[in-house]
Fold this sequence. Notes:
Elements: H1 3-10, H2 14-30, E1 35-39, E2 42-47, E3 50-57, E4 62-66, E5 78-79, E6 86-90, H3 98-110
Amino acid sequence: MNKDIQIYHDALLEEDRAICDALFGVISEGLPDAENKIWHRHPVWFLDGNPIVGYHKLKSCVRLLFWSGQSFDEPCLHPEGSFRAAEARYTAADEINVKDLKRWLKKSKKIQWDYKNIVKRKGVLERLV
């Protein structure tokens, strides 16, 4: 875990840290070639500069966000925002279904929308893979 993500985790309450530690482990294992860093104040994984997945503490939960998640056709991921993102929310580490998360991570490598160039394309998303 890089130091910036460790600082993020260390600032969390114990139960929230347990959720984030669990997510970090599964995501890092599932996306071993992805760059991870703090982006917009929370941990995010990138493939070729394109954001794939991240998580952050909200007031009442930890939100896991897949930037292209609406295209995964997964009932446990819920639409978020006006683009292609989808989320899952957790209030305890034991709520994380690791089997589902691993499947979502596999899909995140195969199904990507080009968020890296969204500004250049004036808000238009194009499918990469």
